[in-house]
Every structure is written in C-alpha cells, then in structure tokens.
Amino acid sequence: MSKKIAAHVSAIHGTGARALVAIHKGEEIIEYKGQLLTTRQASNLEHADADSGHTFLFTLNEKYVIDANVGGNTARWLNHSCAPNCVAYVHDHASGDLRKAKVIIEALRNIKPGEELTYNYGIVLEERHTPRLKKIWACRCGAKNCTGTMLQPKR
Fold first, then answer.
1. Three-state secondary structure string covering 56-73
2. CB 5, CB 74: distance < 8 Å
3. For 72, which of 1, 5, 54, 147 is 20 to 30 Å away at the CA?
4. Is 126 part of any domain?
C-alpha cells in the first residue's frame, strides 16, 4: 500500500505526504501504523501534551491509541485539512478484540499524482477550547471553509 504515497515538504505544515500515483475515490491508501498503547499509557507520554500542538497519536477506541512516534509509517505525515481529500476509518476486528482494530486512510475523492494528502484530524480536547489552545492547534490548510483550528466542536 505505501508505494502510493511518499513524505515531502508540505505547503501546509512541515512534512506532509503526497500521492505518487493516481488514487481513486474510496481506495484504501495506507494503514496508520505505530506502537499500540492503552489510553492511560498514552496520557502519560510527554508528547501527548495538549499544549504541544503536534501529535502522532491516533485514538483507536476507548481503550487503545496508536503512537506513530514508535514504529510509525508515512501515514503519520498526512496533514490536517478542513477540506480533506482523505478520511481515516477505524476498522474493528471481526473478533471484537479492541487491540486488533486498524486505522485505514481512504480517498474521499479522486486524487492526482503529486497532490498532498490530508484528512480532518477530528481533535476533541476535554478541556475548554480557549483562544490559547485554538492558537496552539491552529489550522494552516488554507481551505475556503477553514475553521482556523484543528479542534472540533464538542457538540
């Protein structure tokens, strides 16, 4: 799957990921990989701080998180966008084992070679979304409908 995309210097922010080939709407692009942690383990990580404005943590379910800082792949470089061309789906395992769930990045529309790949991070913080936190989690996507923050409404 990873032959479809590569990391590159992003026009949105830092490192991003771009398509190497044409990708069709609905096509699976890449699995988001990394170390499996419990939510408790993840909350104790230094890089899990809400004040950092940067994360490679992906919540799988109420018990587990994927930490792409350890064993992560190119999927961790996809940037956030308010007008994304991809979506991240959590696929539960047929056995019901929460540890075996996977995150698959899929195309929301047809994507051309060279195009930057993005998805909506869907970040919801439990604490109040203060102007300071909104600035820390500022969105740089440049979309016409950009909300200015990667934080999602709690409602």
1. CEEECCCCEEEECCCCCC
2. yes
3. 147
4. yes
Show the low-confidence residues of the chain (pLDDT under 50).
1
Walk across the sheet containing 64-67 and list its strands.
Answer: 35-38, 64-67, 57-59
Closest CA to 109 of 38, 19, 34: 19
Return the pLDDT at 47: 60
State how many domains the chain has: 1
The answer to whether 87 touches 119, Cβ cutoff 8 Å, is yes
Q: Write the pLDDT tens digit of every residue in 39-59.
A: 999 888 866 555 666 689 999
Question: What angle is formed at CA 15 by the lines to CA 10 and CA 19, rounded to 5 degrees?
Answer: 65
**Residue 154 falls within a domain, yes or no?**
no
Distance, CA of 59 to CA of 34 (rounded, Å): 12
Contacts of 111 (CB under 8 A, 6+ apart): 19, 22, 23, 85, 86, 117
Query: Residue 140 corresponds to which tokens in the numbers above?
Result: 């740089």
Here the CATH number for the domain that contains residue 94 is: 2.170.270.10
> Where do the DSSP E strands lie in 10-122?
15-19, 28-32, 35-38, 57-59, 64-67, 79-80, 86-91, 102-107, 118-119
